[in-house]
Write a structure and sequence with these properties.
alpha+beta, Thiol Ester Dehydrase, Chain A, 6-stranded antiparallel β-sheet, about 40% strand
């Protein structure tokens, strides 16, 4: 299962500096790190909010993919995001989980942490589980 995260990275994951760290099947938690590029900076010098949503969207989607043994990706119906601290332009850690998964809906959550382990942002999503599309040619 985890080989997928090591070998098949989407262009958006590459753009965000995404790196797969691990999948804990017992807790249902997936972990990624990100190295936001300087181009992600807001006028304040931290990561722009919409791009923070991208980190959390990816880690929540990966949690659903991992928990369904690479069978389902989420089609988000909504995503709620809370910004706790400014996200620095340095390595951050993201953790994603599936809260509840059914045939028609999945409830997901994700969190971002700085290098000291402080919470930076948190998101939840309600999504429709959909089949994984064929890889692009």
């Amino acid at each position: 299962m985890t080989e997928l995260f090591k070998t098949q990275r989407s262009p958006s994951a590459q753009l965000m500096g995404s790196q797969f760290v691990g999948w804990d099947a017992s807790s249902g938690e997936i972990t990624f790190t990100y190295d936001p590029p300087p181009s992600f900076a807001s006028p304040r010098g931290a990561v722009q909010g919409g791009l923070i949503a991208g980190f959390l969207d990816e880690v929540m989607g990966a949690a659903l993919l991992a928990s369904t043994d690479n069978e389902a990706l989420p089609l988000n119906l909504d995503m709620n995001l809370s910004f706790v601290r400014m996200v620095p332009l340095e390595r951050i850690t993201a953790k994603g989980r599936v809260i509840k998964h059914g045939r028609k809906v999945a409830f997901l959550e994700g969190e971002l942490f700085d290098k000291e382990g402080r919470l930076l942002a948190r998101a939840t999503s309600t999504a429709i589980p959909t089949p994984v599309p064929d890889a692009p040619v």
